[in-house]
Specification:
Layout lengths: L1 H19 L5 E5 L1 H9 L4 H9 L3 E6 H13 L4 H7 L4 E2 L10 H9 L7 E4 L3 H10 L5 E5 L2 E4 L4 H32 L3 H10 L2 H14 L2 H28 L1
Parallel strand pairs: 1-2, 1-4, 2-3, 4-5
Antiparallel strand pairs: 5-6
Bound molecules: zinc ion (ZN).
């Protein structure tokens, strides 16, 4: 089962590598919901995520995420442990310093619609994940499934975007093919000449005339006939001589 999980992770990462230029070291942007699930599932984030992604990984969070869970922990003490986990990670500048926004808004503002900074978003927030699926392309989603880090399958948006990129590739290939076809077509004019050659076979009609002439030539065999006739004449003469001698 573990091998299958890693193969699946590798396949999904390959999709993002091939279509959206993801490269190690990966930047994993995690939020408090992921840390909460990790705490409940006794998952060692710093060990499990790099192991699962099979590559160098930089795990970061933002000031907005830390401050939100800090506030919530004051209302719900159960989240105090989550706050302790989240603030272990390096803080990535999000542009909201001094003016924090809700954690999900912060993540959305960082990835925008095309995730140019190549974040892998680690979250259990279903609303955030749905937003990424529907409105953002090229964003791997990492979540904990029964305490196991799991990459979600690429969303339809990302697949469509990847498909369009391959379509442009195919267009390039198509243009290459057309240029090649033109070259072949330049060679194919060699075929019409073949047709002309076939038309040149019409001259075969001329050759047929020649053959007719040849048939007319049969005068040659006529000569042979003449020779034969002459021979016959000779024979006749011979017979005449014989008959004359006999007479
Ligand atoms: Zn922020």
């Amino acid at each position: 089962m573990k091998i299958r999980r890693y193969k699946k992770a590798h396949r999904i990462l390959s999709f993002y590598q091939n279509n959206f230029d993801f490269k190690p070291p990966y930047t994993v942007l995690l939020d408090a919901t992921f840390c909460n699930a990790a705490l409940e599932g006794k998952v060692l984030i710093k060990e499990q995520i790099p192991k699962y992604l099979q590559g160098q990984t930089k795990i970061v969070t933002t000031q907005c995420i830390i401050m939100e869970v800090e506030k919530l922990s004051k209302i719900s003490p159960a989240l105090y442990g989550v706050w302790l986990v989240v603030k272990q990670f390096p803080v990535h500048k999000c542009g909201h310093e001094g003016n924090p926004v809700p954690a999900s808004h912060c993540v959305k503002s960082l990835i925008k619609t095309s995730n140019d900074a190549k974040y892998i978003v680690a979250s259990q927030d279903s609303d955030l994940r749905q937003h990424i699926h529907e409105k953002v392309i090229g964003t791997p989603l990492l979540y904990l499934h029964s305490s196991a880090p799991t990459l979600e399958k690429p969303g339809e948006n990302s697949i469509a975007a990847a498909g369009s990129s391959t379509r442009t590739m195919s267009e390039h290939e198509a243009s290459m093919l057309t240029s090649l076809k033109r070259k072949y077509l330049d060679q194919t004019p060699a075929e019409p000449p073949r047709m002309k050659k076939k038309r040149a076979k019409n001259p075969h009609s001329l050759s047929c005339k020649k053959s007719m002439k040849k048939k007319k030539h049969p005068p040659q065999p006529a000569i042979e006939d003449g020779k034969r006739k002459r021979k016959r004449h000779r024979k006749k003469k011979a017979t005449q001589h014989v008959s004359s001698t006999a007479e």
